[in-house]
Amino acid sequence: MGQQCSAQPCTQRSNMVEQVQIESVKVHPVHSGPCPSMDKWDTATMKKYLPPDVDCLKVHSTEIWDYATMRQYLPPDVLGRFKECLVTGAPTPTGDMKVIADGMFKWARSRGATDFAHWFFPIRGGGGATGGIGGSYKIDAFIDLDWSSKTPNKPFLPTFPADRLFQGESDGSSFPNGGLRVTHQAAAFTTWDRSSPPMVVDKVLRIPCSFITHYGKCIDDKTPLLRSSDAVHREGLRLLKAMKLANDAKALYSYLGWE
Predict the structure, then answer these.
(1) Higher confidence at residue 1 or residue 120?
(2) 3-state DSSP assignment of residue 202
(3) Phi, psi of 185, deg, nearest 5
(4) Contact assessment for residue 224 and residue 211, using Cβ atoms and an 8 Å cutoff
(5) What backbone phi and psi angles, to 5 degrees, belong to 183?
(6) Which pTM does this prediction carry?
(7) Where are the alpha helices (DSSP H) in 14-93?
(8) Which residues pair with 190 in a beta bridge?
(9) Residues 138 and 3 sit within 8 Å (Cβ to Cβ)
């Protein structure tokens, strides 16, 4: 059911939506072809990819699982614990994982999503393969066998198990250039970066993930950044405590400028 891709995702227009529901009845596809590059996103291209009655300023961020969306689909206590886990770095409670996955599934289906993908950014080395911002993603459909059925041939049912939201598995031996690990150590794992909101693009729920090996070593571009942010957070709080400043601070965030 799964397929692994390395195509350039439609990240240049992350605020654009794939489907726009107008008056709760009529649904318009916002784009139906390959994502044009930013240097070609001119008036002519916009007319080609966007229906004439879509106001982008009114529909921006509607395809993102952000805080406003979570407030609509998650109970207040679950949302509160999720926010606390983001601050402290604690794992999401097992019971909350199912509630979050069910809420995200309901929301993604309302946006027309039929598949989900763990989206990660493997280190490519000098092999010339597409990497960097393009990343890779492993796509699976929102279906599985109904194992509770008593029939000999189990029927399919639409589902999104919590364990498939928070963790996935890919082929670690393919990165950065293949053949670097023996077979029993070749697996690599993706895990949802909870600080990055998933989004729906081209009917696929894309989940930003870290990518690590069988032994926990990072082979991607995201994990070193997250670990660096954790170090800044940890040592920054120590510094504030030593300076007797902001003693009530719970977290310290670093912001990286484009320059």
Answers:
(1) 120
(2) coil
(3) -115, 10
(4) no
(5) -55, -45
(6) 0.72
(7) 43-49, 56-59, 67-73, 76-88
(8) 168, 211
(9) yes
